[in-house]
């Protein structure tokens, strides 16, 4: 019989095989256990002197039914039944044209794939290039500072997540997640994302996965058009009936999924011009911080740092100012990664972080960002965009107007002394750094909160507030600075029919997995209304 067994624990002090651990958990002989399949793997590092790996598994057990009944009385053990995939539901309204999906990030790719799987023949429009060509452009920018506004870390097939750690975690508890992860594996992601508690693919594996998703969409009757920048909508009787491309071409739309990403500022301006409902919202800005990965490993794993079963350690940190007015938190932490230039328009410096699948650079980096909101930049829908732009331009000027980034070690930042790049890491940002007072390129309340918070984090992770930690500015693209308002149930824009705001750029997701989930559900909302095209 197949049983689902939770909390199978293996101590790193006394390593044993999975079969031995399951046998001990159930109190059965090794011979009674057949095939074992991993469902989940997590690290329990609450006791630094005795770290455990904690597994959930499926196991074939050969035992009498009475004994099986006794086993399943344990709350960690249950009989396993295969779940059925969610059935497709189709509406009765005929589509007047093929559905259009704007943006080939995780939300757009998943929306297009779900529509293609069900016979809707979507056309996916991406302003940037296919991922293989995009990688060449990005590497050229990092090497030379020669920036391409159409093909960069933010724009192109795969979206902003293509140059990231490739985390596939989300706080959203949705049963569809398991199915999406399986699709990712089919399209080139490593199989371990199906069971890791904190799955990631790394930017190298993510590129292959993105290519696989595109191939799957095309094989199912969908179409993908690269370098197809949507610059306007044709609106008739309150409906978005066509889109206009930069070259003047008009494409009729049965429905429009707008998954533009959080950096499509020209798209946001077009929405406002057309009277489409958008609202400014809170986000966060700050810097990237770099430490030796070994320091983070020791702080998290103690004597087990570097253990072959653990990998590079991560962290998640939050600090609130004494008056609770501001919060500093770590964001997009990249174990064994690097800091990258992530500009999306000329004349601005933006930093982000990424890791390869092996996370083996030896350097840990994370965004250290402080919450900002309408109290700081106003309630105009585009006020947050202008707020971002203002500080990105200051950083650009500070670096010498050539995409070098302003940076300094933590000691010079917290003590307000002459900025220094002397640090305990070899800086990873390309095309390069200049020593600069980061307080001059950040709002004072952000800089002050950074100083207090990073110092506080040293009490939680030993060495985190070492003066040799390196700060690089600035990070401004933690999330969309606005929300494209949509109906909670139908996913349709509250002001314009046939327009379906979607994903992180619309303000409804915060990472690869949540964006993909949103794309799936938006596609399902379209399917529940319209017949297949």
Notable characteristics:
single chain, 533 residues, alpha+beta, 7-stranded mixed beta sheet, 5-stranded parallel beta sheet, 13 helices, 27% helix, 24% strand
Protein topology:
Elements: E1 2-11, H1 18-26, E2 33-44, E3 52-61, H2 65-71, E4 77-79, E5 100-102, H3 106-117, E6 123-125, H4 131-144, H5 176-186, H6 202-219, E7 223-225, E8 230-236, E9 239-245, E10 250-252, E11 256-258, H7 265-273, E12 278-280, E13 283-292, H8 293-301, E14 318-320, E15 327-334, E16 337-341, E17 351-355, E18 363-372, H9 374-377, H10 383-398, E19 405-409, H11 410-414, E20 433-435, H12 444-457, E21 470-475, E22 482-484, E23 499-501, H13 512-529
Helix pairs in contact: 3-6, 3-13
Provide a short characterization of the protein structure.
With 533 residues, the protein is an alpha+beta fold. The chain has helices at 18-26, 65-71, 106-117, 131-144, 176-186, 202-219, 265-273, 293-301, 374-377, 383-398, 410-414, 444-457, 512-529; strands spanning 2-11, 33-44, 52-61, 77-79, 100-102, 123-125, 223-225, 230-236, 239-245, 250-252, 256-258, 278-280, 283-292, 318-320, 327-334, 337-341, 351-355, 363-372, 405-409, 433-435, 470-475, 482-484, 499-501.
């Amino acid at each position: 019989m197949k049983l689902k067994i939770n909390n199978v624990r293996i101590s790193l002090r006394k390593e044993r095989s999975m079969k031995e651990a399951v046998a001990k958990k159930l109190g059965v002989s090794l011979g009674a256990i057949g095939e074992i399949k991993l469902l989940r793997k997590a690290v329990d590092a609450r006791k630094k002197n005795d770290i455990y790996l904690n597994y959930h598994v499926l196991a074939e057990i050969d035992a009498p039914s009475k004994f099986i009944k006794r086993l399943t009385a344990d709350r960690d053990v249950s009989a396993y039944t295969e779940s059925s995939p969610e059935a497709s539901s189709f509406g009765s309204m005929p589509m007047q044209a093929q559905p259009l999906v704007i943006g080939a990030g995780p939300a757009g790719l998943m929306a297009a794939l779900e529509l293609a799987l069900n016979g809707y023949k979507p056309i996916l429009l991406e302003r940037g290039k296919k991922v293989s060509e995009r990688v060449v452009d990005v590497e050229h920018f990092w090497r030379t500072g020669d920036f391409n506004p159409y093909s960069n870390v933010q724009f192109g097939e795969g979206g902003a997540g293509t140059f990231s750690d490739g985390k596939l975690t989300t706080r959203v508890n949705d049963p569809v997640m398991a199915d999406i992860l399986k699709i990712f594996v089919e399209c080139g992601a490593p199989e371990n994302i199906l069971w890791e508690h904190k799955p990631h693919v790394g930017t190298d594996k993510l590129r292959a996965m993105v290519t696989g998703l595109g191939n799957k969409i095309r094989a199912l009757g969908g179409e993908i058009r690269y370098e197809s920048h949507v610059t306007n909508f044709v609106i008739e009787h309150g409906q978005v009936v066509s889109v206009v491309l930069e070259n003047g071409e008009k494409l009729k739309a049965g429905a429009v999924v707008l998954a533009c990403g959080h950096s499509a500022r020209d798209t946001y301006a077009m929405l406002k011009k057309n009277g489409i409902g958008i609202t400014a919202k809170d986000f966060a800005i700050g810097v990237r911080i770099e430490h030796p990965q070994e320091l983070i490993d020791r702080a998290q794993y103690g004597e087990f740092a570097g253990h072959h079963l653990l990998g590079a350690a991560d962290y998640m940190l939050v600090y609130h100012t004494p008056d609770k007015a501001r919060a500093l938190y770590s964001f997009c932490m990249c174990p064994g990664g690097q800091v990258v230039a992530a500009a999306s328009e000329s004349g601005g410096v933006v930093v982000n972080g990424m890791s390869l699948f092996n996370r083996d650079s030896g350097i840990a980096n994370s965004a250290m960002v402080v919450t900002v909101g309408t109290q700081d930049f106003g309630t105009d829908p585009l006020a947050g965009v202008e707020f971002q732009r203002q500080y990105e331009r200051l950083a650009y000027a500070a670096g010498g107007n050539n995409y070098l980034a302003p940076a300094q070690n933590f000691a010079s930042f917290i003590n307000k002394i002459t900025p220094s790049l002397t640090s305990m890491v070899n800086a990873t940002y390309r095309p390069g750094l200049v020593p600069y007072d980061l307080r001059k390129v950040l709002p004072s309340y952000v800089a002050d909160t950074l100083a207090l918070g990073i110092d506080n984090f040293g009490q939680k992770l030993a060495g985190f507030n070492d003066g040799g930690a390196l700060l690089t500015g600035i990070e401004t693209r933690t999330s969309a600075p606005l929300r494209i308002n949509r109906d909670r149930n139908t996913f349709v824009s509250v002001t314009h029919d046939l327009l379906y705001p979607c994903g992180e750029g619309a303000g409804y997701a915060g990472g690869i997995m949540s964006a993909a989930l949103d794309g799936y559900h938006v596609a399902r909302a379209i399917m529940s209304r319209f017949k297949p095209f």
